[in-house]
């Protein structure tokens, strides 16, 4: 299993735009109900109210964009990039300690000695695939 990619910026902005549509619909409904009950509000006041509500909703949704692009940190997705220490030499298989857990591991770059730092590059069932920390591959 390879690490998932975060959603593209365009996709995130489309999510925000569609989320703003319900605020627009709610505001339009309020204005229509006011019109049905003969409550008069000057057009400039309606525009000002719409802009204020729209700006507020945009700022709230804009704050959500970073959380939509953030990497998952739980489950299998949270293991990608995690670092650990080799507890049983990887020739190419052995054991590593990641956090407080021991994992069966396989080295993707040959033998790695006990005590070396490694990072998770893939997950295969309950076995992690690792490489020496700091190496690009």
**Low-pLDDT segments:** none
Total helical segments: 2
- Radius of gyration over alpha carbons? 26 Å
Helix content: 40-55%
N-to-C SSE series?
HHEEEEE
Rounded to the nearest angstrom, the distance between the terminal CA atoms is: 16 Å
Structural class by SSE content: alpha+beta
Spatially, the strands of the biggest sheet line up as 1-2-3-5-4
Sum up the overall morphology in one term. rod-shaped
Number of domain modules: 2
Determine the strand fraction and express it as a percent band.
Answer: 15-25%
The main β sheet shows up as: 5 strands, mixed, barrel
Report the mean per-residue pLDDT as an integer. 84
Please give the number of β-strands: 5
Describe the structure.
The protein is an alpha+beta fold and 137 residues long. The chain has two domains: 9-69, no CATH class; 76-132, Nucleic acid-binding proteins (OB fold (Dihydrolipoamide Acetyltransferase, E2P), Beta Barrel), CATH 2.40.50.140. It is 40% helix and 24% strand. The chain is built from two helices and five strands; from the N terminus they run ααβββββ. The protein has helices at residues 9-36, 43-69, and strands spanning 83-88, 93-98, 101-107, 117-124, 127-132. It has a five-stranded mixed β-barrel. Helix 1 packs antiparallel against helix 2. The two termini are 16 Å apart.
């Amino acid at each position: 299993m390879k690490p998932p990619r975060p959603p593209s910026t365009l996709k995130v902005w489309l999510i925000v735009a569609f989320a703003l549509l319900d605020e627009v619909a709610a505001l339009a409904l309020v204005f229509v109900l006011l019109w049905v009950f003969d409550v008069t509000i000057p057009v400039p006041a309606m525009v000002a109210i719409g802009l204020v509500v729209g700006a507020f909703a945009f700022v709230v949704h804009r704050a959500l964009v970073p959380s939509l692009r953030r990497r998952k940190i739980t489950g299998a997705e949270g293991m990608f990039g995690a670092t650990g220490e080799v507890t049983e030499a990887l020739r190419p298989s052995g054991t590593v300690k990641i956090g407080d857990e021991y994992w069966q591991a396989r080295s993707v770059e040959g033998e790695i000695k006990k005590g070396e730092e490694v990072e998770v590059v893939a997950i295969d069932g309950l076995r992690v695939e690792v490489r020496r920390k700091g190496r690009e591959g």
